[in-house]
From TrEMBL, chains A, B:
Similarity comment: Belongs to the homoserine dehydrogenase family.
PANTHER family, alphabetized: HOMOSERINE DEHYDROGENASE
Name of the protein in question: Homoserine dehydrogenase
The enzyme's E.C. designation: 1.1.1.3
Length: 447, 447
């Protein structure tokens, strides 16, 4: 069966940058062109590619596609309908995206950093010119989470979103748990296997996840992108013993990007979190991603898949191209708004400072193994109005070896406001019987 | 902040039937009207409701909404843009949907039975009239699985879809496993709790799941809906001991709707399946739904949430209404095709008979506890070219009590074609040492 063209004019696409993701886009479009044509009703063709390494680019796309070194030649080409930006970063990518919009091109990008920081400016420019800026590939790779949030759950007042949205850190945490190893050891292994970059800072410090959760907070709640207000804490200080203790208490530790609507404002935060082991998301292992969305009508939903890689990310880029193929002739007012809500209907709900966030906690205190320590510690928490959910006290011998005079005291608390917890931790830290810096990991029930 | 209207004309909706789902649609639209308006750029209003029980209907929607007993009065009303069909079944619902299409109304329906059986006729009528027939609510309640398959994964050659798409049976299987109880006992409990209907046939015999997987097969592969070709097997014959043995072998038993593209044709089947316990979908408990989709570019993705209930289903109905509000002024050729592929580009790949399906198996044979039985059974399998993955032989005492002369022999096989397995089972059944009907459950690795 030969696919027929509903509309004989193919969408002409210009790629800016053809590395891992760009090659994936080219290869998948080639391989599945029949299938995609049968869905979209018109072809989608990569007509031009800009890359500084023209030789490598030409080798990737073959001799039938025009390759240039100058991205502006793509933007200036009147035949090009859509510009796909795969350069990354905030620098030249921002300039080129704005120029493409100014030239009346629709834009598809996988650049979460750019949109999380400069999205307000970029989406406003796109609205003025009546073009689409699509970014499914910017969050959770091939999982259609942007579409689900922006179109699939439109009936709902979204209450919270929580996701494993960085594969590198989830791989590291899975390995730490499986093998009982410390962070540094596993990071080196992850680098060797290609799961972590040579400079892994953006991943392990939580910055990449914060870019992504910033985008999700905007489309979930109809607020502007506000990366600068996100609380960001990575996984570099996690010890193997905390993963083990969490396990004993029925929890796993995951790096979550969380955004939540409360009466006081919007929570926007990335940090390691204890999650009940029985939740599906606690069982997402290796480099996989998963995002939970809780809406008032639908309840809790979850979306799982590969969050990175050449073809999973290409899957999202091409889905955006098909959307554009379907919608680009329609009235801009009838398209899906960039940030899910109409630009004139954005909310001014403030993003809360971390001190104002309410959550529950896991605390690990390395204490002297003597009478009265637990009473002092729990006294401080009681004084602060923080109630205790569970206490796990280790035998000194198990923690410090035979004859040890110190031990670990693990406390799970109920919900309290972070500022109060900060004060309580400072007071506990000042006790002479507390022998090392207190470890504090937030706990999310996600039900 | 007061939401502003991008377009002052609200979409006028007529509901046919206002039971559980209809009330949910009305209540969620009321409660979240500000949020929905900010997203859609125009209001969505229920202007008219038809229900035979007009008094109950009027009580549900209040006095500002016109209530009639005659559904045709809604269809005839020129003010109505969209008709939402929530009557269910193949009878009058089919007639009314066709009449609404003929009257130029867009249609939203949660009626999987209707679309799985009469979808070809209904979608053809809608294409002729240039109206949309949206059915997100027909599969997996509030989970946006239709949108994900039809729009989110357009880049992919979909290879298979497998889902827990019937909450009643998943609740029953979860309870059987948790409590070690037999099917009949748990069914009664499920009926008492409202998880199963008074006449649960459609659920427990797999018919409801088959309706849903039929719809997913069409949009995944671009084939017509072909419910009559689906293989359908329910959970009524599952014993508690099979769930226990599966567990010992590292598997859970779930009722899956499966559709898969193979070189010979499309598999379309519903039956209990062993699934590795470590898969996320094996851990979907109670009345929850989850659908796995495997695409060649994106790999395996999973979508999880509530598959039924008033507001989760309403969430899907309203998402469709917002899509229609956004797209109804656009050229029909640019909309998302009803079955994901352009109507002139459907595939004629055949749906395979169950005998032609290739899968692996769990077999339980109740056998005489004497020498040579295992050799005879495995000899038959070897003769048929079916290779064995694992064997679990129980002590006779454990199975039949002290002094018992019979025992259970459990065999896991590798992949083979079902027709061959049928022959082998017939031969094994004929052995005098095989004392009871052989239990056969299919096994899916889902990786």
């Amino acid at each position: 069966m030969k696919p027929k063209l509903t509309n004989p004019k193919s969408i002409q696409v210009g790629l800016l940058g053809i590395g891992t993701v760009g090659s994936g886009v080219f290869n998948v479009l080639q391989r599945n062109q029949g299938e995609i044509l049968r869905r979209a009703g018109r072809g989608i063709e990569i007509a031009m590619v800009a890359d500084l390494d023209t030789a490598r680019a030409q080798a990737a796309v073959g001799k039938d596609v025009q390759v240039v070194a100058d991205a502006r030649a793509v933007i200036a080409n009147p035949e090009i309908d859509v510009v796909v930006e795969l350069i990354g970063g905030y620098g030249i990518a921002k300039q080129l995206v704005l120029e493409a919009i100014e030239a009346g091109k629709h834009v598809v990008t996988a650049n979460k950093a750019l949109l999380a920081v400069h999205g307000t400016e970029i989406f406003a420019a796109a609205s003025r010119k009546g073009v689409m800026v699509a970014f499914e590939a910017a969050v959770a790779g091939g999982i259609p989470i942007i579409k689900s949030l922006r179109e699939g759950l439109t009936a709902n007042r979204i209450e919270w979103v929580a996701g494993i949205i960085n594969g590198t850190t989830n791989f590291i945490l899975s390995e730490m748990r499986d093998k009982g190893l410390d962070f540094d050891v596993v990071l080196k292994e992850a680098q060797r296997l290609g799961y972590a970059e040579a400079d892994p800072t953006f991943d392990i410090e939580g910055v990449d996840a914060a870019h992504k959760v910033t985008l999700m907070s905007a489309i979930a709640f109809g607020i502007p992108v506000q990366f600068d207000k996100a609380y960001v804490e990575g996984i570099t200080k996690l010890g193997a013993q905390d993963i083990k203790y969490a396990e004993q208490l029925g929890y796993r530790i995951k790096l979550l990007g969380i955004t939540k609507k409360t009466a006081k404002g919007i929570e926007l935060r990335v940090h390691p979190s204890l999650v009940p082991a029985k939740r599906l998301i606690a069982n997402v292992e290796g480099a996989m991603n998963a995002v939970m969305v809780h809406g008032d009508a639908v309840g809790t939903t979850l979306y799982y898949g590969k969050g990175a890689g050449s073809e999973p990310t290409a899957s999202a880029v091409i889905a955006d191209l098909v959307d554009i193929a379907r919608l680009h002739t329609s009235d801009p007012l009838h398209r899906v708004p960039h940030l899910a809500f109409q630009p004139d209907s954005m909310s001014d709900a403030p993003v809360l400072a971390m001190g104002d966030v309410v959550t529950s906690y896991y605390l690990r205190l390395n204490v002297a193994d003597e009478a009265g320590v637990l009473a002092k510690v729990t006294g401080i928490l009681a004084e602060a109005g923080i109630s205790i959910d569970a206490v796990l006290q280790r035998e000194a011998d198990e923690v410090g070896g035979e004859g040890s005079t110190q031990t670990d005291l693990i406390i799970l608390t109920h919900d309290c406001v972070e500022a109060k917890m900060n004060e309580a931790i400072a007071q506990m830290q000042a006790l002479p019987t507390v022998l090392a810096p207190i470890t504090r990991i937030r706990k999310e029930e996600l039900n």
